[in-house]
């Protein structure tokens, strides 16, 4: 779903609908690439395509829970009335491509880095 909808990531919620964590698409990509290739990217050039196809098969039947960080991290959450600069600062500090927007402990939606940039650079 992330790939087909070109989402920068997913906001994962708990059973009460409150943000639990954010799974950036980059983390999914990181899961696909073997650690030895991450350590030495030049190896990617010599891996056969058939092996590369097998890497994508790793996602079959995989749950989001398996891809989440094992240690709790600061949630990229902003208030509905935060400024664009506050949102940008949080995204930059956490290196996260999206943030959850909250109002009264309820998720209103999300802001992606690309949408934030679009708003900042468009003439008003």
Question: What's the short story on this structure?
Answer:
Helices cover 37% and strands 22% of the residues. With 124 residues, the chain is an alpha+beta fold. A hairpin with a 5-residue loop joins strand 1 and strand 2.
Overview of the molecule:
By secondary structure, the chain is of the alpha+beta class. The chain has helices at residues 25-32, 35-39, 49-57, 64-67, 84-94, 113-121, and strands at 9-13, 19-24, 77-79, 98-103, 106-112. Strands 3-4-5 form a three-stranded mixed β-sheet. A two-stranded antiparallel ribbon has the order 1-2. It is globular.
Secondary-structure map:
Blueprint (H helix, E strand, L loop, with lengths): L8 E5 L5 E6 H8 L2 H5 L9 H9 L6 H4 L9 E3 L4 H11 L3 E6 L2 E7 H9 L3
Parallel strand pairs: 3-4
Antiparallel strand pairs: 1-2, 4-5
